[in-house]
Design a protein that fits this description.
Blueprint: H1 3-26, H2 40-67, E1 69-70, E2 73-74, H3 75-100, H4 119-146
Antiparallel strand pairs: 1-2
Helix pairs in contact: 1-2, 3-4
């Protein structure tokens, strides 16, 4: 199994586990004399199987990410860089949006609002980070589709 396939299965399991939780909750109580629309015990068994598979995949994915090297760094390092860059990019974008929203004055006597950061320079940094993030994501995606999931016991 390729790493990318394991990542997709993990994502599918996340959704299925949430759905099973909702179905179990919906069938937790019934009016006296009525039957639940689904067997809560069967749902619980299905949930247990899904969670076991999820734990297995997370373990294998993490092991694979730690041992696989691309561009001289492990996938774990590349993922951490991507997450940090995404966080920084989000903050910079919010700052640029806020700084770019200088209020218009209706009259010359109103208070002027000025940006405290150079918006154009900030936007250039944002563009540079966006490109780095895109290239990093491409590298990760490509590597995910060419890397076998480590499934040793």
């Amino acid at each position: 199994m390729k790493l990318a396939e394991a990542l997709q299965e993990r994502a599918d399991l996340n959704v299925k586990i949430q759905q099973l939780e909702r179905r179990m909750t919906n069938n937790a109580l019934v009016q006296e004399g009525e039957q639940p629309s689904e067997d809560p015990e069967a749902l619980q068994r299905e949930l247990d199987v899904c969670i076991e598979r999820f734990a297995y995949l997370v373990t294998r994915i993490n092991l694979t990410n730690c041992r696989t090297v691309a561009d001289g760094r492990t996938l774990t390092e590349l993922i951490a860089r991507k997450d940090a860059l995404s966080m920084k990019l989000s903050v910079y974008r919010n700052l640029a949006n806020e700084a770019g929203n200088t209020a218009c004055r209706a009259r010359g006597s109103e208070i002027r609002i000025l940006a405290t950061v150079p918006v154009a320079a900030l936007q250039k940094q944002i563009d540079k980070m966006s490109k780095e993030l895109r290239l990093l994501d491409n590298k990760l995606q490509g590597t995910n589709w060419t890397t076998e999931l480590i499934e040793e016991k």
